[in-house]
Amino acid sequence: MTKEASDMSATAAPAAATAPPKKLPPYKLTSRITHPEDSRIRLGEYEIGGPEFVVMAGPCSVEHDPQMLGTAWDVKVSGAHIIRGGAFKPRSSPYSFQGLAEEGLKMLSKARELTGLAIVTEVMDSTDIDLVESYADILQVGARNSQNFSLLKRLSKARKPVLLKRGLMNTIEEFLCSAEYLLAGGNDRVILCERGIRTFETATRNTLDLSAVLAIKERSHLPVIVDPSHASGRAHYVAPLSRAALAVGADGLMIEVHCSPETALCDGEESLTPQDFRALMGSLQELAPHFGRKISTLKPGAASENPPDSVAASMAAAASAAE
Ligand code: PEP
Ligand code: MN
Fold first, then answer.
1. Which pTM was predicted?
2. Which of 241, 242, 265, 274 could form an S-S bond across to 97 if both were Cys, CB 3.0 to 4.6 Å?
3. Quick check: 150 pLDDT over 90?
């Protein structure tokens, strides 16, 4: 091309200012078009959606004080930022353990007092929002309720951030529309969680859609975390999938950890032991800087700290009662 021709083609190219405006998707406030910057959600010392790779960990269900306090202590000394545990459990069978309801919330609250970490727990029903909100720091909406629009509308008025899990059969557009219910009603402190979707595959409990992290981040400003425990259903898949989530750009993880997975009342087969969780946190801390992240919770020597005597005594009592 002559210089003249290349000058002409440069002037012929459409100027950015005259490009047609991007069409807004049905999830307007959730979209990056209306909010180009990443959203960050502050929780105490940390922001979810910033450089810190935030790890939420704990048992599937709150079962009793020694289990909850012991596990909470273990995940804290291993570097978790937030404690998880369900007090209202969405179980496929009505005969399975349904959770301890308010009694479980009180145990979570004790775990927060013991560790100083924030707690995330599921709210299943609109009528329980006030109760759960009076204990929790983050309100979790489970996969089965991801399109419960009346629950989402009520949660849009909550004072606490919401962790919204992707529904078992939801497209990314449907998932972002669910988030939109929260933002449209006034709650913009929303964290999205990819927890695996249902496919034809039966080798794993669900199919972890890691590309969803990229697709969501392209479309939305909201932070995205990954739950490799419910996605895979297998404890020994959790660590490699967690590292993959960090590599693909997730803002954090939600991981099931139980002080005694073989006696867990729910999801023991996908729960890490505290020792495995500690090893995973060590590897994530090493890898994080390679992906522009950090995990600043692990302090030198912290991993050797023992729980206070009262917690150690109740854990020992629970262990001997289980024998
Ligand atoms: C949970 O995190 O406790 C849970 C029930 O997960 P999900 O809603 O993703 O199945
Ligand atoms: Mn579970």
1. 0.91
2. 265
3. yes
